[in-house]
Design a protein that fits this description.
Elements (H helix, E strand, L loop, with lengths): L18 E4 L6 E4 L3 H19 L5 H16 L9 E5 L6 E4 L3 E5 H6 L3 H16 L2 H7 L8 H5 L3 H7 L15 H17 L5 H17 L13 H18 L9 H7 L4 E2 L7 E3 L2 E4 L4 E4 L5 E4 L4 E4 L5 E8 L4 H11 L3 E10 L2 E10 L3 H6 L5 E10 L2 E10 L3 H12 L3 E2 L3 H4 L4 E7 L4 E2 H7 L7 H7 L7 E2 L4 E6 L1
Parallel strand pairs: 3-5
Antiparallel strand pairs: 1-2, 4-5, 6-18, 7-8, 8-9, 9-17, 10-11, 11-12, 12-16, 13-14, 14-15, 15-16, 18-21, 19-20
Helix pairs in contact: 2-4, 4-8, 4-9, 8-10, 9-10
Bound molecules: zinc ion.
The site of zinc ion has 7 residues, from helix 4 and helix 8.
Keywords: Hydrolase, Metal-binding, Metalloprotease, Protease, Signal, Zinc
GO cellular component, one term: membrane
Cofactor: Zn(2+)
């Protein structure tokens, strides 16, 4: 959770109209349901939701780098006339994705895992390829928006999920699964575009190996460009073949890799979770920047995004979330909250929480009439504590069905009443890990070098993957290597 104010109307509007258009890449006539204007509008509407979900990574030089390389590549692409925008978003997850109309996003997590500019350029070309070949536009036509979100999946009741799912509204688009043919086509375009601006596309294939190793080790969610390829080996071979063919075609003899240049760029990059945006330790959520704390009920899962911190029990029968609500007073905030979530107050009282002024409100959400006709839906009952602290209104909302409310009341209220100012220095001063680039002083194995740089035994494999090397590899004196420090 960051200092974002929640907005209840970030849902992207999907414009679905039939039209027939010539595909910019294949030159063939496609049946797509969107005009170019609609495609651009869809991207422009979804962009704020992406930034609200992840936040922009604060590093001017890195943002300039992706913008500059992206624009250079867009200019040699099949749709140079589109207005493109390239951003690094503040997420530790390894991913890159594109929205229709020219919006491309790389996470800081994927930026940490590239080992040279050529790898970065290959993935950049792949994402631009999804835009130029109008993949998501066609995918949209098939109406297969995947609804995701960790909590969304955990919560059984769709009504509870809907009310609690502030963060992923409007983001369905991001989680489109492209088909295998689309991914193959984007690989080809990635090779073509990166070769055309002088990079060695062979490196893109090598990056697939890094991703495969990383996934095998962590079980992390699958990034876009690995999502629908059952046989990564074939893809690796194919990209190498394409790279050779395009080098020949473009007469590229001195293909750029730019390893050291890239590594210097990511020196100091935040690595892994950033505790300054809130972290959970021993079942307590701490937020060092906003200086507060409260407990997470035992056995509950949680998810932290810039907009909202969410918690839910394993059986998904309830959830609690914390967010900031605008308003000069608690009363004004309460009104905004009731309206935004379509809640009818049942009772409310003024109180204090660890010395902070607060409002406790029980409120119901009636099933919508349409839904009522389709199926039996239950009344949703909520308990909310609005707490005024440091010029902000914090809303802790517990959500469950009216039937279940008595069972959860105690858990909800004890969590909310434990909200307090964070004073512990060791939590307030918690710093994220950052990538450090070191130059190897003496030829040694990677394993030795990592250990010399205080990388713990149980993290050696993680850093081998991060460096795109094996622990037994001999690393020559003068080579740059990634390690971390606080
Ligand atoms: Zn892809």
């Amino acid at each position: 959770m960051k200092k974002y104010i929640v907005s209840t109307s970030i849902a992207a509007v999907l414009l679905l109209f039939n039209s027939c258009a010539t595909n910019p890449v294949t030159g063939k006539r496609d049946i797509v349901l969107m005009s170019e204007e609609q495609e651009i509008a869809l991207g422009a509407q979804s962009d704020p939701a992406v930034l609200a979900q992840f936040g922009l990574y604060e590093d001017k030089a890195l943002q300039q780098f992706i913008q500059q390389k992206g624009q250079a590549m867009a200019a040699v692409s099949h749709r140079p006339e589109l207005k493109y925008d390239f951003k690094v978003v503040d997420s530790p997850v390894i991913n890159a994705f594109a929205l229709p109309g020219g919006y491309v996003y790389f996470t800081r997590g994927i930026m940490a895992h590239f080992n040279n500019e050529a790898q970065f350029a290959g993935v950049l070309g792949h994402e631009i390829g999804h835009i130029t070949a109008r993949h998501s536009v066609q995918q949209q036509s098939k109406a297969t928006l995947a609804q995701v979100g960790l909590i969304g999946a955990m919560v059984i009741s769709p009504e509870i999920a809907q009310l609690g799912d502030v963060a992923s509204q409007g983001l369905g688009l991001l989680f489109l699964k492209f088909g295998r043919d689309d991914e193959r086509e984007s690989d080809e375009l990635g090779v073509e575009y990166s070769t055309k601006i002088g990079y060695d596309a062979d490196e893109m294939a090598d990056f697939f190996l890094t991703l495969q190793r990383q996934q095998a080790g962590s079980g992390q969610a699958i990034p876009d460009f690995l999502s629908t390829h059952p046989n990564p080996g074939d893809r690796y071979t194919k990209v190498h073949e394409l790279a050779a063919a395009w080098k020949k075609k473009e007469n590229l003899t001195n293909a750029k890799v730019a390893r050291n240049d890239y590594l210097k760029r990511i020196d100091g990059l935040v690595y892994g979770e950033d505790p300054r945006q809130g972290f959970v330790e021993n079942s307590v959520f701490y937020h060092p920047e906003l200086k507060f704390r409260f407990p997470v009920p035992s056995g509950w899962g949680y998810q932290n995004t810039p907009q909202v911190f969410q918690m839910a029990p394993k059986d998904g029968s309830a959830m609690m979330n914390l967010m900031l609500v605008p308003g000069e007073t608690l009363e004004a905030a309460a009104q905004a909250l009731m309206q935004g979530f379509n809640l009818q107050p049942v009772e409310s009282k003024s109180t204090t929480v660890n010395g902070l002024p607060a409002l406790a409100i029980v409120a119901d959400q009636q099933p919508q009439q349409q839904a009522q006709q389709q199926q039996q839906q239950q009344v949703i009952r909520t308990l909310t504590y609005l707490i005024r602290y440091g010029n902000n209104n914090y809303s802790l909302m517990g959500i469950t069905t009216a039937d279940n409310f008595d069972n959860y009341f105690q858990t909800f209220s004890s969590t909310m009443q434990s909200f307090a100012e964070l004073k512990e220095a060791d939590k307030l001063n918690r710093k994220p890990e950052r990538i450090r680039i070191v130059t190897v002083p003496q030829t040694a194995t990677l394993s030795q070098i990592l250990q010399n740089n205080n990388i713990k035994q149980d993290r050696l494999e993680e850093f081998a993957i991060l460096n795109g090397m094996e622990l037994t590899d001999r690393v020559e004196k003068g080579t740059m290597v990634k390690v971390v420090s606080h």
